[in-house]
Write a structure and sequence with these properties.
Elements: E1 2-7, E2 11-17, E3 34-41, H1 48-61, E4 72-77, H2 80-94, E5 99-100, H3 121-133, E6 138-143, E7 146-152, E8 158-165, H4 167-177, H5 197-224, E9 228-232, H6 236-239, E10 248-249, H7 253-265
Parallel strand pairs: 1-4, 4-5, 6-9, 9-10
Antiparallel strand pairs: 1-2, 2-3, 6-7, 7-8
Helix pairs in contact: 1-2, 3-7
This protein binds adenosine-5'-diphosphate, ligand PAZ and potassium ion.
């Protein structure tokens, strides 16, 4: 079994894949062989020992004991310090040498970023998974701490994309700086024209982000042609009901991309 860890700036997403179970386009999709998954908060102050404790306890709660059955690990991290802690935890306590994903590895995808090593490894994992599941050209929208857009050309190359503030980052900034506004539940508004403060915020955040995403997809398509659009990330389901262009939601895109990268490089 393969331990896949996607260290984001807000949460660490962990999945365990049984690699003897097929996944992909024809059988199982991105969750084929996914035996368990969980999320833990990204915190800078954990030691590698504490991180190992969290990981092994969560694995056990999913009836996946860390000590038997894990024969590989792959990590992507957008937070270098926490990523290093996770790698150290896996090395010290799980006796595995994790594959650490970066644009400097040969991932089987041509990376046309000016400096391939600068691309977020989560964005590359998303791209590898997209190419396994769908036909390019494509656009992946990942709703996390940031909202990222990745463009995959018709020849299957990673072209780059866009990085926008994430939904919660934007909402937090708004509430912390607008004295008269207070926190609300984010459910989709019935009208774009809000007739109360709560409805106006819901409109601005949810419909506003959806419009931004739809508008970005149109601009990307002007450069790469009509594309398959796939959404992922912890906040995807908040925005996609209001989006015209993001109709496909793949919650396990990044984890599945990590599995594919591991299998490709071994
Ligand atoms: N199942 C879920 N439904 C709705 N929101 C979720 C879910 N899981 C996580 N989240 C939210 O998603 C955010 C984290 O998204 P994620 O894509 O993991 O970001 P990052 O990769 O930047 O850490 C958190 O704010 C969390 O509250
Ligand atoms: C853009 C990101 C912050 C998104 O990370 P996340 O929101 O998932 O934590 C991350 O992919 C990153 O730090 N990328 C490096 C810069 C780049 O991709 O160009
Ligand atoms: K991410």
């Amino acid at each position: 079994m393969l331990l896949c860890v996607d260290v984001g700036n807000t949460q660490i997403v962990v999945g365990v894949y049984d690699q003897s179970v097929k996944a992909g386009k024809d059988s199982g999709g991105a969750s084929g062989g996914l035996m368990g998954h969980f999320r833990i908060a990204t915190r800078n102050d954990y030691s590698s020992d504490e991180m190992a404790l969290l990981l092994s306890q969560m694995l056990e709660m999913r009836s996946l004991s860390a000590s038997n059955g894990l024969d590989g690990a792959v990590v992507s991290s957008t937070n270098p310090a926490v990523g290093a802690t996770v790698v150290e935890a896996i090395r010290r306590w799980f006796d595995l040498d994790p594959l650490v994903v970066s644009g400097d590895l040969d991932l089987g995808v041509e990376v046309r970023y000016e400096r391939p090593g600068d691309v977020g490894p989560d964005r590359l994992a998303d791209t590898v998974a997209f190419l396994d599941l769908y036909e390019p050209p494509g656009i992946v929208v990942d709703f996390g701490t940031a909202t990222t857009f990745d463009a995959i050309g018709s020849d299957g190359a990673y072209l780059g994309g866009a990085i926008a503030p994430g939904v919660l980052v934007s909402v937090d900034a708004l509430f912390s700086r607008a004295a008269a506004l207070s926190r609300i539940d984010m459910t989709a508004p019935t009208h774009a024209i809000g007739n109360s403060t709560v409805e106006a915020i819901r409109s601005g955040v949810l419909l506003g982000f959806a419009a931004m995403v739809d508008g970005m997809c149109a601009r990307f398509e002007a450069e790469i042609g009509p594309s398959k659009v796939v959404g992922t990330g912890g906040l995807c389901s908040l925005i996609t009901p209001s989006s015209v262009r993001v109709k496909t939601h793949e919650p396990w895109l990044t984890l599945y991309g990590l599995r594919l990268v591991y299998e490709y490089t071994r």
